[in-house]
Design goal:
The chain has helices at residues 2-23, 42-48, 63-66, 71-80, 129-151, 170-176, 198-212, 258-351; strands spanning 28-32, 37-40, 86-96, 100-111, 120-127, 155-159, 164-168, 186-187, 217-224, 230-241, 247-256. By secondary structure, the protein is of the alpha+beta class. Among the domains are: 7-134, Beta-Lactamase (2-Layer Sandwich), CATH 3.30.450; 149-256, PAS domain (Beta-Lactamase, 2-Layer Sandwich), CATH 3.30.450. Residues 346-352 have low confidence and may be disordered.
Length: 352
């Protein structure tokens, strides 16, 4: 009778275990104390490409041409489980002939849990191979993003909508000589880049509110470098939106424009100096031009006077020539007159 009662208990436990196995979608098997399989879920057969005929009643290590003779699984079932009632998240990696390398999370427990001498082991198997591949790919992508993130010469970070800094690149950290751990998960305006100016902190908080509403903000700021010098920064804050248009992150970005500012200031001073020189030279040229005009005017006046004198001289010369001509004519007439009396006298003598 006792044997029959014991069989009934085992049968009840088996039915209980099979009820669990039937209800779940994950690979799961039920083992007896001898580690032989007494039940398995449909997912187990599908994932590991095995039939019930080749499974039920088999010693687990003999399953699938001893593909399940896995050292980690032996340790779990032979060493750990006898000392504990449950095993959680026990990771196993193994190469299966038909399905290749698999990464599995095993969870095992005796059933029923509260029995003094449980007769069955429930072994749940979670295949996380694809998840691990995705996570590895994500880790690789993060490394690539981080490499690009850190190679840029600009200061770049990532913030929550509330203004909490959750990422900062190496350029920004090296600029101020700070460690990433000292600024992560802190309000951005309380970080060393902004702590030197209450006015800039207020402007940044106001800008964060605007960007949280979807705006883009850009302004000129100053940061103190690790050598203590004040540097000018072209700072911008842009929203990152999801597919629905909701702002989910903010990207702070800055460029050190100190050299450009100094160059602009030098150019401004040079332009100012050049402008002064041009004005001075223009004034000098204006004075020289004025003096030249005076000299030209004076020269023209002298020329005019000379012309007038020349004309007077010409008139005088002409008058002198006229007088000389008249004198010459008078002389001719005198000579003529002098000749005339002689003729008269001669005529008189002949008459006598």
């Amino acid at each position: 009778m006792k044997k029959e009662g014991g069989d009934l208990v085992i049968q009840a436990e088996l039915e209980y275990a099979e009820g669990i196995v039937t209800a779940v979608r994950e690979p799961m098997i039920v083992l007896n104390k001898e580690l032989k399989i007494v039940s398995a879920s449909k997912a187990f057969y599908g994932v590991f490409r095995i039939t019930p005929k080749d499974t039920i009643g088999k010693f687990i290590y003999d399953l699938g041409d001893r593909q399940w003779d896995i050292p980690e699984l032996r340790r779990l079932l032979n060493e750990i489980l006898p000392q504990q009632k449950t095993i959680d998240n026990f990771q196993v990696q193994h190469n299966f002939a038909q399905i290749g390398r698999r990464i599995m999370i095993l969870n095992a427990e005796w059933i029923p849990k509260d029995a003094v001498k449980p007769q069955l082991i429930l072994l749940a198997i979670e295949d996380i191979t694809e998840r691990e591949k995705i996570e590895a790919s994500l880790r690789d992508s993060r490394l690539k993003i981080r490499a690009v993130f850190d190679q840029t010469f600009q200061f770049i970070g990532l913030m929550t909508v509330g203004g909490i800094l959750i990422e900062a690149n190496k350029t920004a950290l090296d600029f101020s000589g700070i460690e990433i751990s000292t600024v992560l998960n802190k309000p951005f305006w309380e970080t060393p880049w902004w702590a030197h100016s209450k006015a800039l902190q207020k402007k940044l908080r106001d800008s964060i509110r605007k960007v949280a509403a979807g705006e883009f903000v850009r302004f000129e700021a100053t940061h103190i470098a690790k050598d203590g010098t004040l540097r000018y920064i072209d700072f911008s804050l842009k929203p990152v939106k999801d597919e629905s248009g909701r702002v989910i992150f903010m990207i702070p970005e800055g460029r050190d424009i100190t050299e450009r500012k100094e160059l602009e200031e030098d150019l401004k001073n040079s332009y100012t100096e050049l402008d002064m020189r041009v004005k001075v030279r223009t004034a000098e040229l204006s004075r020289a031009n004025e003096e030249l005009h005076k000299e030209i005017s004076h020269s023209r006046q002298i020329e005019k006077e000379l012309n007038a004198k020349m004309q007077a001289l010409e008139r005088a010369n002409k008058s002198t020539e006229d007088k000389e001509s008249k004198i010459e004519q008078l002389r001719e007439k005198i000579k003529e007159l002098e000749r005339r009396p002689k003729k008269v006298n001669g005529s008189s003598k002949k008459a006598e």
